[in-house]
Structures are given as C-alpha cells and as structure tokens.
Design brief:
By secondary structure, this protein is of the alpha+beta class.
Length: 835
C-alpha cells in the first residue's frame, strides 16, 4: 500500500549551541523560583503561595468575623484557581500561618490540630478549619479599590493581585525564610509596635540616623520569646542586610530539696524543636558529655512550656546550664539575610531601606485609593446634582412627565428641558416618590454637601505629598493603637559570643617560648620564680638539639593571640591557650602540628596580641625591598588555614613582620651592607591583598635580610643599638643616631662594610645591654655571647669576630634572647616580648 501523504518540508533549521540553550533555560528557571516562589515581596512581606491563600480566603468571604471553613476547601480553591502546585505544599504554608510559635502575628485563625513546638504535624486538611485573622484583614484592606496591580492567573482565566495593599510592614513584623536558586532569605519577626513606631519616625524624619532608628527598633521579637544577644550582629544585619544574633532559651533554677536543684526551661530559641532538643540532652547525658543530671521530664501544657532538668545533689547548677548552652540548642544563632523582591528583582535590604520600600508602597496604594474614591465621589456628586435640580423644580418635572407618552421621550425631555445629563435624567426617572418628602430632600442635600467636602479633601490629599503622608501616618497610628503589644524577647547587652573553650579557661599570665627550629610551648609563670631578684636566671628549655635554641620568649595571657607570619606571606592565627602547656625544661611541640602550614612554609615572625585595637599596624618587609603597612584590625578574623597577609612578585618572600603604632621609624638592612631609615608615616595603610611599596632601592645582586622598628621614646633610643652579623662570623653594634632619617625608596647608606674578609650580612637585630646574641653556623656550631661584649662602632666598618669557624663554614642565622627571672615576669606586661 502506497502512502500518499505529502512530505513535511522544513523551510529553515536553526542551529543553536546546547550550552547557551541550557544556560538560558536554567536562568529562566532560576528567576521563576526566585521571583515566583521562594522570596517574599518587600511591600507586603508575602511569598506568592501565602498571598494566594489570603486572597482566596478573601474571595470566599472567609474573614475573621465569619464562620470557619474546612482547610481543604481553601486549599482546593487555591490550587484550582491560582497556585498550580501540590496540595500539601499549600496546606503546609497555611498551617505555618496559623502557628503561634512560627508567626509573631498569626495570619490564619486555625481550629483543630495545627502542630506543635515538639514538631508534631498538623492534622489532615479535611479535619482542620481556618479563617483569616483580623490582623491579616489589614493586609487586604482596600483591595477592591484598584489599589494594586492584578495579573492573570496560571491559565489566564482569572486575575490575582501581584501584591497586597498591606497597611502593616509585614516583612519585618512576621519575617520570612526561603531558599531560592543561588540565594536565600532569612528575616526574623519583629514587634509590630516597634516597627510601626520606626515607620512613623522615618515619615517624620526621612534622614533619621541609623542609631536613632535602632533605639526604636532595638532588635527582633521572636514568637517563642527567649533572650537575644550579639548587638553587633543585629547592627550589621540592620545596616547591611546580613548579620547574625544569638538566641538563648530562658531557664530558671529551682530548689527541689536540701542541696538539690533543678534547671527549669520555660522558653526555647525560635524554631528549636522541643522534643529533638530533649532527646539530644538525654543522649549527651548517656554519653557522659554532660554530667550531673539525674532526671529529665517535659511538664509543658497549654499554659506554657516547662522542661525540668533535675540535678545531682550538690551539683553546681550554673556549670550544668553552661554546658547545656554550649552543647545543645538551648543557645543557637540566627543568621539574618534580609533579601526580598523589589520590582521583580531580588535585593538585599537594610532595616531602613525595607521600611522606606513599605512607605513607598503605601504612598502608591493610598494615592490609587484616593483616585478611586474621587472618581466614585464625583460620580455620586453628579447624580445628586441632577436630583437636586429635579427637586428644586419638582412641580415642573412632574407636569412634564405627566404629558410624556413613554420613558424614552421622558428621558430625552428631561435632558433638554432641565439641562440634565443622560445618567442624571435616568436617576430622576428611577427616583422613588418617598424622596419627595421634606426629610428625604434634606438628606439628599446633606449627602451632596458631604460629597463635596470629601471631593475637596481627596483633591487636597492628591495635590500635596505632605497631606498624603499625614493620611499614611494616621493609618499607621491606628494600627499601632490596635495591635501594639509588649515585646516578648529580651535583648541582652551582655557579652554574647556564646560559649567556647575560652569560657572554661582562667585568664592567667603564662610564659611562651619559641625555639629557632620551630618548637613552641607555654609554661606557668611560677616556673620562672624559683630564685630571687638579681639572680643569673634559670634554664628556660631543653631543646634536645645542639643547634637549636630559644629565640622568642614572652609573657602573655592565655586568651591572647599569636599572629604567625610565614615566608610565603601568609598569616596563621593561634590562641596562647592552644599552645601545649609543658614544664619549664620541656622542648615543646613543633609549630607545624599547631598550624596548617603548607609544604615549604616556615614561620618567620610571631607577634603576641592581647586584643585587636584601632591605631595599631603590622609592618612587613620582603626580600626584594618592599615595605607594607596594614591595619591590625584587618587580621582579626582569621581562617584555620590562614590568610594572605601580603602579595608577592615572583621570587620574593617575607623577611619579617613587626607591630607598630604607625608613628615610628622603619629600619631596613641588605646583605650587601646597605641600610635605610625612614618614617613609617611615609607608608600608607594598605589592605591584606596589596603588594606594598618600595622601601629601599636594591642593586641586582642585593636583597633585604632584616627589618626593625625604631622606638620613638628618647630614653629607649639611648639604650638600643643595631647588631649586625656577617656570614663569616663578624659582627658589630652601631648606635641608632648613626642612621639618619631619609625618604622612603632610596638606596640608603652603609650599615656595614661588606668585604671578602667578613662576607655578606646575615641579619640585623635591635639590641640592648643585657641581651645575649646566639650565632649558629651551617654545620651546627653555636655560640652564645652577651651583646655588651660585641664592640660598638660606626657604620662604615667591618666589625669584630664573633664566632670562629672552619674553612667552608658560614653563619646560618642569629637571634637575640635572654633568660627569664622573677623580675622580668613581674615587670613585663601581657603580650610583651622579653627578647
């Protein structure tokens, strides 16, 4: 059998790249999820599903003053008309709006089982009933007055609002959370009274300062109450749109017998599942991670939450409570991301910006409402004017109507004879005889006057932004008077960084030692107080190696920081208490075991810091003569693997890092004997990823071998000198006044006369009388000598022999150290180096 069908002719086949098609399709999908599902609108604070639920209930007349309807009725209406998704997704959204532990101000009034803080699911939608709350009604107020834009539903058969008029800034009041594609939002609930007062304050003063606004809206107000802390995190969230704060449950200590107490938890942090939390405590007790608990029971009822944790007799309740805070969700963080949709696009909002967006929305809504009401008022005025004309000439009108043969002729005659419009003439014809009574006539005249007054008022509002804002402010004040309530969550001003290992450590002074080969330890200060003042000192460590020695020793607090700078220009961050505690004579533990160093990375400088403060700087010098100064605060947030402290050119590396106050002098020395001294103020403050600026101009074969920071105090200058040591074992001390201050970036002046006899310069150190110099050769030979025995001479000299070496031997490095005695421990402030 022959197929007689015509062949299909394709006029044009267009080739497209699959990656471009996939990219475009994915972007369309992403924007659909972002704008149409996961993120709320900044104007009404609702996602599409919540908006559709409320609009559907509004259409069903399911308002707060009407009877409840089955939840299944509402869900079916929503998915059938507006939201083409699964019924469970819609019902879950409806349920959440009816939970007093999820919403600060519920939008749905539920009847039946709508779940619990224990994580219990709501009953099936066929069993529960719901209606809108009165609060939710204000989100839809004036919807019928053409106040917002409508658009077609998913199949184009109906229309739905793209946003609700919303008299209340619901985005902040009830918050929102959602995960879109590549972004998410997490906005906490707030107290409606505070938000409304903040909104009114911005209307009164659009230039209100951030701190003034935060006095009105000090922080979130969570449905489950609790205690909120970390004011700095709240400020960051309100100012920049991102931040975090700490939520702590409220617990009280009750006495339940002689020397026996119980911890009673009456409030949990927001969104914490009570049952899961109790199971977690039981697990920790079973695994002996939390000790002292003998019984755990949930006594919660409809009157409130009450979880009783009985303690062993004589147990310290505060310690157990601290462990509950540290190891369970009794204390947890809320990460704020104030992301919402504005004009169809996602945007990160500050607190003020979100309120301003709501005010702009209300300005638009009230303007459209006034336009609608003005049109209706003018229509009514027009009809009333026609009726008034007819009543003023009622006898003539009646005589005329008696003589007309039909309604059409009567209508046309009224228009011609009494100068009425078509609509006015029809109104006269439709007028009932009772309107001719004196009382009804007076009512008509009074209504006309009221309409004229209303028209004048609406014209005034539409013609003046000041009057428009008065209307908005009056409506906000009305909402405030009706819904303003007390704050539930307490805002704590106490230190709120949460519990960590440091909360269980005593802040005490310890002695930290670092050896030349990279071993570190900390020891008790008491270990260095075994002899009286004026002694010769005691042995600080047994390095276990002939070529190793203690090169850094300082007293610091256990809670101080150690900033470890490496040759690769990276900074690693270590707390003093993380350095192993060992005896005075122990060698210590390798730094490579304490820091996440990479292959070839070596710690060059360790700076003890008590705290990160303003007006302190880290000065760095590189082998190729680059100098960089960075604010100390830039290093306050370090990752475990370290961060970049300075960027290098190829072949360059870090020589040294030092702490400064930004007003001192920088001294740089090179291996060919040159040096330069310049003011630190010549180096501008730079970010961590910057390269730096030229500190000294180098010859092709020259390189920087050392850097020191010269003190500004005149008394200190007299006691200090520069110690230079060369590769062939020669050294000298030179007074600081030998080095004049120059401009940064020059070739400098001679520091030491480099010849074949003494070799190249190895390093320079700032020393004082009483210090010891330890010089070590490449074959492990080591000598320790007081710096006072090294001759103090001028710059343009070779120096004297410090160490005798065999042929082929050379100085590898040298360091400055001193023994620690009681006087040094007592007189040294926390974090100050002793060497």
């Amino acid at each position: 059998m022959t197929d007689n069908k015509e062949p299909i002719v394709v006029d044009k086949i267009e080739s497209i790249k699959i990656e471009e098609e996939m990219q475009g399709a994915y972007l369309e999908y992403a924007m659909s999820v972002i704008a149409g599902r996961a993120l709320p609108d900044v104007r009404d604070g609702l996602k599409p599903v919540h908006r559709r639920i409320l609009f559907s209930m509004y259409g069903l007349g399911n308002t707060y003053d009407k009877r409840y309807l089955k939840s299944a009725r509402t869900v079916g209406d929503v998915i059938g008309k507006y939201h083409p998704h699964g019924d469970s997704a819609v019902y879950n959204a409806l349920v959440r709006m009816a939970q007093d532990f999820s919403m600060r101000y519920m939008l749905i009034d539920g009847q039946g089982n709508f779940g619990s803080v224990d994580g219990d699911s709501a009953a099936a939608m066929r069993y529960t009933e719901a209606r809108m709350t009165r609060f939710a009604g204000h989100l839809l107020s004036d919807l019928e007055k053409e106040t917002v834009e409508f658009g077609p539903n998913y199949d184009g058969t109906m229309e739905e609002p793209k946003v609700l008029p919303s008299k209340i800034p619901n985005l902040l009041v009830n918050g929102s959370n959602g995960i879109a594609v590549g972004m998410s939002t997490n906005i906490p609930p707030h107290n409606v009274g505070e938000v409304l007062r903040g909104t009114i304050a911005i209307i009164d003063n659009p230039q209100i300062e951030f701190d003034e606004l935060m006095k009105i809206i000090p922080g979130p107000d969570l449905p489950t109450a609790g205690i909120i802390s970390n004011i700095s995190g709240i400020r960051a969230a309100y100012k920049y749109g991102k931040g975090s704060f700490t939520m702590t449950g409220r617990a009280i200590i009750e006495s339940i017998g002689k020397d026996k107490e119980a911890i009673v938890v009456i409030e949990l942090p927001y969104q914490v599942n009570k049952s899961t939390w109790i199971e977690n405590i039981a697990s920790l007790v079973r695994d002996k991670e939390i000790e002292g608990i003998t019984d755990l029971r949930d006594e919660s009822n409809r009157e409130g939450m009450r979880v009783v944790i009985e303690l062993r007799k004589g147990e310290a309740s505060q310690i157990v409570l601290n462990n509950l805070y540290a190891k369970t969700q009794l204390r947890t963080n809320f990460g704020v991301i104030m992301l919402a949709i504005e004009n169809g696009r996602p945007r990160l909002f500050s607190l003020k910006d979100s309120i301003v967006a709501f005010i702009d929305h209300r300005r638009d809504v009230v303007t459209k409402r006034c336009v609608f009401e003005l049109r209706k008022a003018r229509d009514r005025e027009h009809l009333l004017e026609g009726l008034r004309i007819a009543l003023d000439q009622i006898d003539a009108v009646v005589d005329f109507l008696k003589k007309t043969k039909d309604a059409k002729t009567a209508k046309e005659g009224l228009q011609d004879n009494f100068k009425l419009s078509e609509r006015q003439a029809q109104a006269v014809l439709d007028m009932r005889l009772q309107r001719l009574t004196a009382i009804e006539t007076q009512k008509l005249i009074s209504e006309l006057e009221e309409i004229k007054t209303e028209i004048n008022y609406l014209n005034l509002v539409l013609g003046s932004d000041i009057e428009l804002m008065k209307v908005i402010k009056a409506e906000l004040t009305e909402m405030l008077d009706h819904y303003g309530d007390k704050r539930r969550s307490e805002i704590s001003l106490a230190d709120d960084k949460g519990f960590n290992a440091e909360d269980f450590l005593q802040d005490e002074q310890v002695v930290v030692t670092i050896t030349n080969s990279g071993y570190a330890k900390r020891s008790s200060v008491e270990d260095y107080r075994s002899q009286g003042r004026g002694g010769k000192g005691i042995k600080g460590a047994d390095t276990g190696k002939d070529d190793d020695f203690v090169k850094d020793i300082f007293v610091a607090s256990t809670l101080s920081y150690l900033l470890c700078f490496t040759n690769l220009g990276r900074l690693h961050w270590l707390k003093v208490h993380q350095v192993p505690e060992m005896s005075r004579t122990a060698r210590g533990r390798p730094l490579v075991q304490l820091l996440q160093l990479v292959s070839g990375e070596e710690v060059l400088s360790i700076l003890p810091i008590k705290e990160f403060v303003e007006n302190k700087y880290i000065v760095m010098a590189t082998k190729q003569g680059v100098i960089k100064k960075t604010d100390l605060m830039a290093f306050s947030n370090i990752r475990a693997a370290g961060i970049i402290a300075i960027a290098f050119d190829d072949g360059d590396s870090l020589v040294k890092a030092a702490l400064s106050d930004g007003k001192q002098d920088i001294f740089v020395a090179t291996k060919l004997g040159q040096s330069i001294r310049f003011s630190e103020e010549d180096v501008r403050d730079m970010g961590r990823n910057a390269r730096g600026v030229r500190g000294i101009k180098l010859d092709d074969k020259d390189a920087v071998v050392g850097m020191e920071i010269f003190p500004t105090e005149e008394n200190d200058k007299d006691k200090l000198s520069i110690l230079s040591v060369s590769t062939l074992g020669y050294g000298k001390r030179t007074p600081l006044n030998e080095y004049r201050t120059q401009g940064r970036g020059g070739s400098g002046i001679i520091n030491i006369k480099v010849t074949d006899k003494i070799g190249e310069l190895v390093a320079v150190k700032l020393v004082r009388d009483g210090d010891d110099a330890i010089v070590i050769s490449n074959v492990g030979q080591l000598i320790r000598t007081p710096v006072s025995e090294i001759r103090e001479i001028g710059r343009n000299t070779q120096g004297v022999r410090v160490i005798n070496m065999d042929d082929g031997e050379s100085v590898k490095a040298f360091a400055i150290t001193r023994e620690v005695d009681e006087s040094q421990v007592e007189e040294t402030s926390s974090g100050e180096k002793l060497n």
